[in-house]
């Protein structure tokens, strides 16, 4: 019989660990540059870093201290300033934002009270407190903003401010370039993962015809072949919207790339380097991924195909939490958590491959899918509509799998990300698929 006290202590430890890990990363991202870089807007696509910092604290205060604990507001007058739906990113520099020192103090004060709250929290009674969901939601929220801040660092002009070791070189991958995923039903989504967010729910059965999927994400070398073959100059490979977009914005290569003679260079966190041929391609929009797939005689996988490739265990006829099984991610499984500041070479992490032999489905690069962001059958918004429901529709495309910039708390086999098909500043790549025979 399970000891409830032991369960509560385990949940408490997990909540403290995930919140502390997120805050350490937030601190790194906001302490490695001086205050002018925190208050500047480095791109109209992104908020000033200092806005993200105070927004993290404000969301934590609203959900954990006010909603869960019923406590009085610390700074109710700033709620509107840090409401992401009230103020688009381009407008945020003009708001009366808390200056860096005050933002740090506010976020720290909120966190101190939350850690005190955790000492006496009962992890049951309401949907928010069950299994510590609200604490997991806030840890995921902070890590998502940490990824957003890392994107801002990539967009920031100036010298390198962040440092991390490179991934280990990967042995030459000698296996097949694609894998057949058998047709048939599988369980998509989850009804049991305690910290899963609303758009991942509920679990439901999907029938997926057989298909082939790339063993690894598409590499820079493969994408360069598309460029050199005139892929950006041939409308056969592009949707009408995609062709109009790349013509209007004069796109000829992934974001941050530039040609230097016969080679391609890229800018990565303040450093200019030769584009590494064996890394998954990064900073491409959905239109670019879709065009490459057409040029290669293939297509992007649907979201259901991607998840089946990542979670289906044919031997046990079940859906796993991750490609490697149900165990939480470890460093040998995937490139996560900003441990590195780049994708690992294609073919890395053999211990993280799926039962069918597909690699790097988790971590390294977010992978564009062919699917629009839509609710699952039986979807219920929780705890607020603005997390998922307001984004459902054909305007947004689904990305799966996470990137090197994603923490494991915000990355699962069921986790769904979404963005506009024009977005390139995100850490996005892709792999291709084709329909298979029975």
Radius of gyration of CA atoms, rounded to a whole number: 22 Å
Q: Span from first to last CA?
A: 46 Å
Order of helices and strands: HHHHHEEEEHHEEEHHEEEEEEE
Number of E-state strands: 14
Task: Using brief descriptors, characterize the structure shown.
globular, 9 helices, paralog of FGE (formylglycine-generating enzyme), 14 strands, single chain, Four Helix Bundle (Hemerythrin (Met), subunit A), 4-stranded mixed beta sheet, 3-stranded antiparallel beta sheet, alpha+beta, 438 residues, 30% helix
What does this structure look like?
- The chain has 438 residues and is α+β, with helices and mostly antiparallel strands.
- Helix content is 30%, strand content 14%.
- The strands form 5 sheets. The chain has a 4-stranded mixed β-sheet. Strands 1-4-14 form a 3-stranded antiparallel β-sheet, covered by helices on one side. Strands 5-6-7 form a 3-stranded antiparallel β-sheet, with no helix packed on it.
- β8 (312-313) and β9 form a beta hairpin.
- α1 packs parallel to α5 (133-155) and α3 (49-68) runs antiparallel to α5 (133-155).
- The longest helix is centred in the N-terminal third of the chain and has 28 residues, at 4-31.
- It is globular and about 60 Å long.
- The model has no long low-confidence stretch (mean pLDDT 96).
Précis, in short:
The chain has 438 residues and is of the alpha+beta class. It contains nine helices and 14 strands.
């Amino acid at each position: 019989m399970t000891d409830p006290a032991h369960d509560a202590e385990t949940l408490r430890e997990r909540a403290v660990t995930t919140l502390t890990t997120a805050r350490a990363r937030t601190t790194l991202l906001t302490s490695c540059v001086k205050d002018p870089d925190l208050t500047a807007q480095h791109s109209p696509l992104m908020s000033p870093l200092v806005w993200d910092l105070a927004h993290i604290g404000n969301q934590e205060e609203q959900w954990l201290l006010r909603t869960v604990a019923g406590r009085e507001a610390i700074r109710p007058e700033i709620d509107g300033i840090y409401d992401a739906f009230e103020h688009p990113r381009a407008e945020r520099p003009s708001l009366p934002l808390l200056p860096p020192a005050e933002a740090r103090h506010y976020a720290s004060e909120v966190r101190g009270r939350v850690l005190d709250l955790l000492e006496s929290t009962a992890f049951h009674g309401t949907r928010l407190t069950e299994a510590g969901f609200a604490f997991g939601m806030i840890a995921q929220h902070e890590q998502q903003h940490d990824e957003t801040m890392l994107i801002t660092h990539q967009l920031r002009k100036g010298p390198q401010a962040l440092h991390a070791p490179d991934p280990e070189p990967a042995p030459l991958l000698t296996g097949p370039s694609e894998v057949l995923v058998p047709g048939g039903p599988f369980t998509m989504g989850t009804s049991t993962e305690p910290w899963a967010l609303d758009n991942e729910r509920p679990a439901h059965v999907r029938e997926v015809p057989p298909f082939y999927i790339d063993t690894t994400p598409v590499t820079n070398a493969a994408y360069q072949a598309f460029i050199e073959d005139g892929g950006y100059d041939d409308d056969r490979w592009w949707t009408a919207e995609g062709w109009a977009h790349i013509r209007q914005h004069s796109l000829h290569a992934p974001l941050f790339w530039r040609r230097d003679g016969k080679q391609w260079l890229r800018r990565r966190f303040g450093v200019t380097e030769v584009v590494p041929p064996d890394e998954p391609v990064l900073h491409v929009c959905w239109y670019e991924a879709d065009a490459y797939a057409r040029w290669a005689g293939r297509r992007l996988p649907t979201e259901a195909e991607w998840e089946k490739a990542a979670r289906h265990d044919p031997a046990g006829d079940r859906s796993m939490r991750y490609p490697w099984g149900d165990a939480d991610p470890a460093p040998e499984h995937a490139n996560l958590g900003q441990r590195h500041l780049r994708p690992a070479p294609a073919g890395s992490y053999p211990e993280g491959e799926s039962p069918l032999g597909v690699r790097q489905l988790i971590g390294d690069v977010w992978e564009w899918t062919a699917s629009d962001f839509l609710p699952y059958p039986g979807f219920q918004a929780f705890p607020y509509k603005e997390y998922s429901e307001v984004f459902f529709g054909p305007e947004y495309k689904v990305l799966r799998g996470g990137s090197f910039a994603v923490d494991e708390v915000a990355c699962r086999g069921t986790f769904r990300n979404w963005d506009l098909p024009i977005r390139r500043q995100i850490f996005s790549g892709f792999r291709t698929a084709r329909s298979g025979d029975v």
